[in-house]
Design a protein that fits this description.
Chain A: This is Urea ABC transporter ATP-binding protein UrtD. The structure holds two protein chains of two kinds. Chain A is of the alpha/beta class. Helix content of chain A is 36%, strand content 23%. In chain B, the strands form two sheets. A two-stranded antiparallel sheet of chain B has the order 1-4. In chain B, strands 2-3 form a two-stranded antiparallel ribbon. Chain B is mainly α. The chains are: A alpha/beta, B mainly alpha.
């Protein structure tokens, strides 16, 4: 193509330049029923391929469990979705229209992806109530944050979430004083306050008692449908109790996908988990 | 009304502001009304000394805002303090006019001494008080903004950031020592005559400066208190405790840090501007890293994360410094070092933390 053609291409009246497209503050488009597209993603750290041509699709409203042996790339995958790690190649789309590659972590959070860390991370020197207040969806720029006042609707929203995570009685307690399990729930509550479309939950039951686990399973299943929930977990009993669809990751790519029974019967999965 | 709301649940702050108000009224009265020789008379020298301490207290509040609430241990707040001081010093130099040793109507003495024949461009405008006051805030604010924008965007945190702030103030000290910089080199700016037409040597001016400093300290405290009780203040604490979490719930951590750090630097600059007319000199020694470390010690001694604790710490340590450098000059630096070690080990929450603990026990 010679330079005249190039110029003609640039000057076309129906042309929309990429940089003119709005990238932030978009409402996620779920018209095709798929909320997350990860395609051909690879990322390596110092030559080690943590993610290797990963393809993963999550439907809107589903509860998906992701399992896999240590080093399978589960946490790295979450890092990529939330913008913490940039992949070497591939594409990640949230709904039809939001390109996650172009957004920073806060922008991705604002777009509607919430993340719970492996280790429960709450603001220990704030009360439970304040933890939820800070996480609430809204304008999070400097000046609006400085002048923000809670209104009745927002208080109701916080109360509602407190009820979901069963921490009403601890509302004025410092988060640092909560038990391990309560911190995990508080963190899930903080995700809910963001009104996310997609929740990424990393090892929610690590270190929990059996009662706490049951409670968490109940919580996560009740969230599916209105939210899309992706759970990464090691505990097979827990996965069995909540999973409808399971994806097995191995060496950075998808090994198997299906219901828990199908996956457990798959010889490749058995080999990965049990060895030869 | 809003001010009352701000300090309603802040008993330490109420006490601090009340004592400050009382001192602001009483100290000038004791100086003016009682004759010299009366046991309760406070000399003008003491009033100026206290005024200096109050300027340090404002500086300590600025350090506490960045360190205690945002978690940025700045070892370079002396740079912002000194820049504010230099801006004020430049105004005071221009006010000398032709009363300098060389009697040049335009150029300050040190420029005549260096055989300069014109005022450098960055000295323009400093003959106007409003411009100087603007620069008192803009110069440190701009430095903090540029430094913070680069550092926070690159996610430099913790001890690395502290070392960088230390290097920043050290570099500025070396730069200001150079005569070519045009800020008086080694000697700095001194021999001030008057401020807004008031003779700086006069008792009434000194008392006026003390009162203004006390009022600015109270105002600085209230504004900082407003910030830390707002949602932005809670976000700052969130950044301090769990930076990643804050980012993943959608706050732009670097913007939060930048805003509060810059405000803290502006406050430090104002403290510097209040300090200079009271001590009558500003020189590059104010940029020395040791000074910035001392500021951190004031805050640690008082108790960080309370604001008023920082102010109390600044007053206590500076009183100790005045006393010790007079009585046992060689001991001061050892005492300062020992103080820091002891406070870190025994009083992690400072004197205020100790008092709160005592209160909780009884």
């Amino acid at each position: 193509m010679n330079s005249l053609d190039n110029l003609r291409e640039v000057m076309r009246r129906d042309r929309v330049f990429d940089f003119m497209l709005q990238t932030t503050g978009l409402e996620v488009d779920l018209s095709h029923g798929t909320i997350l597209y990860l395609e051909d993603i690879s990322v390596s750290f110092d030559g080690f391929k943590a993610i290797n041509d990963l393809n993963l699709y999550i439907d809107a409203g589903e509860l998906r469990c992701i399992i896999g042996p240590n080093g399978a790339g589960k946490t790295t995958m979450m890092d990529i979705i939330t913008g913490k790690t940039r992949p070497d190649k591939g594409s990640a789309f949230f709904g039809q229209n939001i390109n996650l590659m172009q957004l920073s972590e806060p922008e991705i959070a604002q777009a509607g992806i919430g993340r719970k860390f492996q280790k429960p991370t709450v603001f220990e020197s704030h009360t439970v109530f304040e933890n939820l207040e800070l996480s609430m969806a809204g304008d999070k720029r400097i000046w609006p944050t400085l002048t923000a006042q809670l209104n009745g609707i927002q208080r109701d929203k916080i109360d509602e979430v407190l009820e979901i995570i069963a921490l009403q009685e601890q509302r004025n307690l410092y988060a640092g004083a909560l038990s391990h399990g309560q911190k995990q729930w508080l963190e899930i509550g903080m995700l809910l306050m963001q009104s996310p479309k997609l929740l990424l939950v990393d090892e929610p039951v690590a270190g929990m008692t059996h009662q706490e686990m049951d409670r968490t399973a109940e919580l996560l299943t009740s969230l599916a449908g209105t939210h899309t929930v992706v759970v990464v977990e090691h505990d097979m009993d827990f996965v069995r109790s909540i999973a409808r669809k399971v994806t097995v990751l191995h060496q950075g790519s998808v090994l198997a996908e299906g219901s828990m029974d199908e996956v457990q019967a798959d010889p490749r999965v058995i080999e990965v988990y049990l060895g030869e | 009304m809003r001010i009352i709301n701000l300090i309603k649940h802040d008993r330490g702050g109420q006490l601090f502001l009340s004592v400050l108000a009382l001192a602001t009224v009483l100290i000038p009265l004791l100086n003016l009304l009682l004759p010299e020789g009366h046991p309760l008379h406070i000399s003008t020298y003491t009033v100026t000394l206290l005024g200096k301490y109050l300027a340090f207290a404002l500086l300590a509040i600025a350090v506490d805002l960045a360190w205690g609430y945002l978690g940025i241990l700045s070892l370079g707040h002396g740079a912002f303090f000194a820049l504010g001081g230099y801006a004020m010093g430049m105004y005071l130099m221009r006010q000398i006019g032709d009363r300098g040793v060389y009697g040049d109507p335009l150029l300050p003495d040190f420029m005549v001494f260096l055989n300069w024949d014109a005022l450098p461009w960055f000295w323009y405008g400093f003959d106007m008080f409003w411009f100087a006051i603007l620069m008192v805030m803009v110069a440190p604010g701009l430095l903090a903004f540029v430094f913070g924008w680069l550092a926070f965007r690159s996610r430099v945190t913790g001890v690395y950031l502290s070392i960088m702030t230390q290097a920043l103030t050290y570099a500025l000290m070396l730069a200001f020592f150079r005569n070519e910089m045009g800020f008086g080199g080694n000697n700095g700016l001194t021999d001030f005559k008057e401020l807004l037409g008031f003779n700086l040597q006069a008792d009434s001016t000194r008392i006026g400066l003390f009162i203004v400093t006390a009022l600015m300290l109270a105002l600085g405290y209230i504004i900082c208190r407003a910030i830390v009780t707002s949602r932005l203040g809670r976000v700052a604490v969130a950044v301090r405790d769990a930076e990643d979490r804050t980012r993943f719930i959608g706050y732009r951590v670097e913007h939060v840090k930048l805003a509060i750090f810059t405000f803290s630097a502006v406050l430090a600059g104002i403290a510097g501007a209040l300090y200079v007319p009271q001590v009558g000199i500003i020189n590059p020694g104010e940029f020395s890293p040791l000074n910035s470390i001392e500021m951190v010690i004031w805050v640690a001694v008082g108790g960080r994360g309370t604001l008023y604790g920082a102010a109390v710490g600044a007053l206590m340590v500076n009183y100790g410094k005045t006393y010790l450098t007079g009585a046992l000059p060689e001991v001061w630096l050892f005492a300062l070092g020992a103080l820091f070690v002891l406070v870190t080990i025994l009083l992690p929450k400072g004197v205020i933390g100790l008092m709160k603990r005592k209160e909780a026990q009884s």
